[in-house]
Specification:
By secondary structure, the chain is an all-alpha fold. It contains five helices and no strands. The chain is globular.
């Protein structure tokens, strides 16, 4: 799965940029300015990337962050 994800990002440079910028915490409008794309276009690409499993949808991301914090606290 990781290999397929790498190949998909390699074949779509915009997706690679979006993934990197999302990792930095930028919003769709900021990413749009950096990539010279409309915010609505970035939003659609993000949705497509979520469907492909390249990005975590916001609801699941918050849940996973909570779980990570819980487990990190339990390990200390």
């Amino acid at each position: 799965l990781e290999k397929i994800s790498r190949e998909l990002l390699k074949s779509r440079p915009l997706w690679s940029d979006i993934k990197r910028y999302k990792g930095l915490g930028l919003n769709h409008a900021e990413i749009g300015r950096l990539t010279s794309r409309a915010t609505s276009t970035v939003r659609q690409h993000v949705r497509d990337m979520e469907r492909c499993g390249l990005l975590m949808p916001p609801k699941q991301l918050a849940q996973q962050q909570q779980m990570a914090l819980h487990f990190a606290g339990g390990m200390a």
